[in-house]
Amino acid sequence: QVQLVESGGGLVQAGESLRLSCAASGSIFSFNFMGWYRQAPGKKRVLVAGIISGTSTYYTDSVKGRFTISRDNAENTMYLQMNSLKPEDTAVYYCNAGASVFSLGSWGQGTQVTVSS
Question: pLDDT tens for residues 19-35?
Answer without folding.
Answer: 999 999 999 988 999 99
